[in-house]
Specification:
- The chain is of the alpha+beta class.
- The protein folds into two domains: about 5-130, Gcn5-related N-acetyltransferase (GNAT) (Aminopeptidase); about 140-290, Aminopeptidase, CATH 3.40.630.30.
- The protein has ten helices and 13 strands.
- It has helices spanning about 15-20, 35-40, 45-50, 85-95, 115-125, 150-155, 165-175, 185-195, 250-265, 275-285, and strands spanning about 5, 50-55, 60-65, 75-80, 110, 130-140, 155-160, 205-210, 215-225, 230-240, 265-275, 290, 295-300.
- Strands 1, 2, 3, 4, 5, 6, 7, 8, 9, 10, 11, 12 and 13 form a 13-stranded mixed β-sheet that branches.
- Helix 4 (about 85-95) crosses helix 5 and helix 7 (about 165-175) crosses helix 8.
């Protein structure tokens, strides 16, 4: 039967999140997770649906891809039972490689397809090259989560809702932007968080903030459930630039693990750029185990380095 690629509608998003959830396993690769869709949904459900590509055959979903941002990044997950099927992987490679097919435009592009070895091999044969390495990290929470790191850092952890979003967005901006945080930037980021929290995935999520003894918000995270007995995702986690080096990143990561255990997760997963040694060390300090680095595949525009 023919493999068909489609762009879903908003009404399909809940089903797609459910399919992605069923593909998450503790020992499996850290591929596209329903939490990735959740974090992306801060752009709105309509845009999130428009950014997705779904491959199916006879009504069965075989692969899902998320066009994540304006820089030609396609993040993918394949049905674990069909990950090495040659016909499927050849179809995926053809659709991703040919701009006419409506996945990636011409020019620079990156495909993240962790665990999909046959698909990655086919892209390599088409001239795609290894990109920068990433380090997957994993923490088993089935036996409980010791909150010693949280207590040792001297912080309290709060669940963030719409009435308490300002501290969360302030820390996030500092952690990932680091530029002056004016009223316009605050309003925009606040609206994005509220859009995410009111979207189709947030019933699977929880946002947390760590406050120090002076009541300053110092670290934040959002965690995403894939379902009972499956690995949850930390996306994102950040520490305010004025409060780094004090163990707050490890503390909020332990709190993230505890929250996901409470929500029913069997383990917690996150992926950090291998070049970001501080991020990897923070998660290791929070009880995560670093796995073998993985690389995405990059297609460089002809004539460019």
């Amino acid at each position: 039967m023919t493999v068909v690629m489609t762009t879903p509608s908003v009404r399909d998003l809940d089903r797609l999140a459910g399919v992605l959830s069923s593909w998450q396993v503790d020992a499996g690769p850290l591929h596209l997770h329903p939490g990735d869709l959740g974090w992306h949904s801060s752009r709105g459900a309509v845009q999130t649906a428009a950014s997705l590509r779904v491959w199916s055959r006879a009504g069965r979903i075989l692969a899902i891809g998320l066009l994540d941002g304006p820089d030609g990044l396609l993040r993918m997950a394949l049905d674990p039972h069909l990950r090495d099927e040659d016909a499927l992987c050849r179809q995926l490679a053809a659709d991703v490689t040919d701009p006419v097919r409506g996945v990636l435009e011409e020019g620079d592009a990156v495909v993240e397809a962790r665990g999909a070895e046959r698909f990655s091999q086919l892209l390599s044969e088409e001239g795609w090259q290894p990109d920068e390495p990433w380090t997957p990290l994993h923490r088993d929470v089935s036996g409980g989560v010791d909150d010693e790191r949280v207590r040792g850092a001297g912080v309290r952890i709060e669940i963030i809702d719409a009435s308490r979003v300002d501290p969360w967005v302030s820390v996030h901006w500092s952690a990932f932007k680091g530029t002056p945080f004016g009223d316009e930037e605050r309003r925009a980021l606040r609206e994005r968080w509220l859009t995410m929290a009111g979207g189709p995935f947030y019933h699977r999520a929880r946002s947390l903030a760590a406050f120090d003894s002076d009541d300053h918000a110092v670290a934040v995270t959002t965690v995403w459930l894939a379902g009972p007995g499956r690995p949850g995702l930390v996306e994102p986690m950040g520490v305010h630039r004025d409060h780094r080096g004090r163990g707050y990143g490890a503390a909020i990561s332990v709190a993230a693990a505890a929250a996901l255990r409470e929500m029913g997760s069997s383990s917690v997963a996150v992926c950090a750029e291998s070049s970001n040694a501080a991020a990897v060390a923070t998660y290791v300090a929070a009880g995560f185990t670093a796995r073998e680095p993985v690389v995405d595949l990059r297609r460089a525009c002809q004539g460019r380095g």
